[in-house]
User: What shape does this take?
Amino acid sequence: MEQKNSISGIYIGLLGLVTLACGLADIFVWAGITSGFQVGILEIAGGDDFFRWAWGGGFIMVCAGLFMLAGSRNALSLQQFGKVTLGAVLVWVIGGTDIFARLCENIPAGGEEAPEFFNSFSGFIGGFAPPYPPAVILLPFTLVILYLLYMRAYDTD
Amino acid sequence: MKKIGLFVLFAALVLCQGVSAHMPGASPAPEVDLGPIVVSDNGGVPVEISVDDVGKYHGMLEGKNPDVCVCCACTYRAILSGINEIWGGDEIPERSDIGLKCGLISNGSVHAAWYVTGTGSDMDSNTRGKMELILSDGSVLTNQSPPSAIKKASKARTPDSYWFEVSRLSTGDSVMLTVSEDMFPEGFAEMRKKVKFEKTASKDEIRQFVSDYTSVRDGMLQKPDYEIFNEVEEPDESPDVLGGGIFLTLLCAFCIGLVVMRRK
Assistant: This one.
């Protein structure tokens, strides 16, 4: 159990660090400290929208990272795993809204000059192509936490 | 008395339409957001130069109201496109590292180039780039200051004169940009000569030229780079179906996995 705890702790700690870094990067880009950037399929575009970039993308992701980091020590105890789960849920909320936003913006054809209202099928599919915001990229990595939750791997004692 | 007052008011309103335009009768330039040219000045301080700043500078040197003319707009677009091509989107060029060779010789073009490269006589000499005006015979116009020299060179302008070579002086990288002939209506250069220099155009021809001038200027401001410059390729707008397909497949697999796990 102890070995399982340490492996989970390291994984969750690393995930927490990356989440925290992504959240801070979102805030820095929103604040104009650095311009938006893209690394591979990860993109932090930034923008003036406070709710999207400073609150949703930034503050909530920072909180998610902090919860995961806080829960990474002795991660499989009930209380600690609760913190980790809360962090993961925050990432799911932001990632889910990002995916939902893409879904919604890919339904109409877009562009004022487009005569048709609905997007073409290839345009709709292509709209889901990379790059993605950090929360969407982190989503699959948080599935490990979902798996641990489902398997009831945490210590209930 | 009332009638005279009304007439004066009407005349003032009509004249107001052209007061900010340097081409008499042309409507004011449309508002556009082209994004600024960002250069670093005086030891790394970033300076943003918009097309409106260039119009203000041009207006100031002409002793008129701010105005973005065809040449101002074209030169601004060329420098913006050239800088983006050479320095990429992320790097900010030192103003003193920008070189420009320009085949378009006119007050508007020269003022725009002076302002961006910092080579105007009233600008800081420590941060100057390099600018050369190339005459139609290939020689360099060495003395750019007297307006008569620019006016004389401007008379010989044809659509072929609309070329620019933007370069990075420190590395020697350069990009050549020529304006597409499609930007100009047929006979635009001849009509310009007739209206502006020979003064032999009829009223209808002047009206037609002002209309053509306005559409050329608006095109220079509003059209994308690939429509203005021959060398800029149209970006590939076809959607990345493979990338999107992979994402959607993974998303569907995840959702199915969740349902299966739940049922178990």
